[in-house]
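Honest question from a wet-lab person: if I give you the sequences of every part of a complex, can you actually get the arrangement of the whole thing, not just the pieces? Trying it with mine:
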Amino acid sequence: MATKELKRSRGILGSLTLVFIAVGLYFGLVKAPPDANQGDLQRIMYLHIPSILTAYLSFFIVFVGSCMYLWKREQRDDILARSAAEIGVVFTALTIIEGSIWGRPTWGVWWTWDARLTLTAILLIIFAGYLMLRSLIEDEERGAVAGAVLGIIGFLDIPLIHMSVYWWRTLHQPPSILRPDKAPWENVHPAMLTALALNFVAFMLLYFYLLSLRIRVGESEAKAQRAVLEGTA
Amino acid sequence: MHKKRFLIGGLIILAAIAFLVSRGMQQAMVYFRTPSEIKGNEAKFNSQSLRVGGMVVKGSLHRNADGLTYRFQLTDGSANIPVYFHGVPPDLFGDGKGAVVEGKLGTDGVFMASTIMAKHAEEYSPAEHGKPNSPKAFVPAAEEKKS
Amino acid sequence: MDRWGYVILAYGIVWTGIGLYWLSLRMRLKRTRAKLSEVAARKKTGTHA
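Yes, you can. This is the full assembly:
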């Protein structure tokens, strides 16, 4: 078995993550210049954008895992989807908290019910509901099917969130990075873009590190459950 | 049998979510009104809570000696609405900046704002490259094309 | 609170939150692994509960 190699690559991913988090913090808090309008407050962006992109990726993985599960009915895909849903909830909650802390001094309010914020709150509620549903349904397979259906529906909220600032009047500004009509450096100064990119890499590494850890938790929980069932049978 | 029950349960959840989303979004979709929509229709909006979004007309911002009372005009380019506000506005609020105000339209046509929110642009740059922070498109481009 | 106050608050919450989540995952892994080996040991000795 290649357990040793797996362990080593996990170790490498872990250390690389730590290095990039440190570099990201340095660039975000020290190296990047303060913004002309917001001053140092703008540094919250180096958390906010990577956080929400990590959440989007995570729910995309839920979507893929859920589709695969409904198609092939393999527990592996369900464990992947459930793991990604949990991490997605963590990063969505962090995104909302960061946005709120930024919004108070910038907009003047901690929260407002505009389309983008409302749809993001709905995303959090759907996937928090997903996690509750999974912990409530004891039957393995039924829980997995219900989760897969909800996971697919929940993912469909993300394109709505992204387009909300184009379709409706909002307080939230349009995207700076994820847009086809303008290059990122036209909206964000290169020195700030560097800090943002480094933090994005740090969050991606962190994400895959956490996901692999969460999948191992899921796998060993499934194994333990099987073992208990076999023992009592 | 189980599958059927699941399908029905799933559909109910789906319908509930769709209902909540549409109810919530109806409000969120018209997050604010523009001065043009209000001008000429004042009677329709009178003394109901609403939000108005626009740019603060340059030179229209007046602050009373107490430092807490503000008067200014909000514009969307074609109409202006006079606004009165008592309180502390956010740092980014100012002459020529974008703002969304919450409050009530008085019978005299003056909007009594209880909250001022600053609308931020999607541009970021250090001070030496500083651009004025003003949202270019206040109403989404999709909506402008339609009208 | 000044601007740095908000920045520190945001960074503090994010990295504390992520750190706690990471710790909780490690604890969950440890717990289930302990349970697994316990079940395996019980099976070997044949003492069914």
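Two things worth pointing out. The first strand of chain B starts at residue 49 and ends at 56. Chains B and C do not touch (no CB pair under 8 Å).
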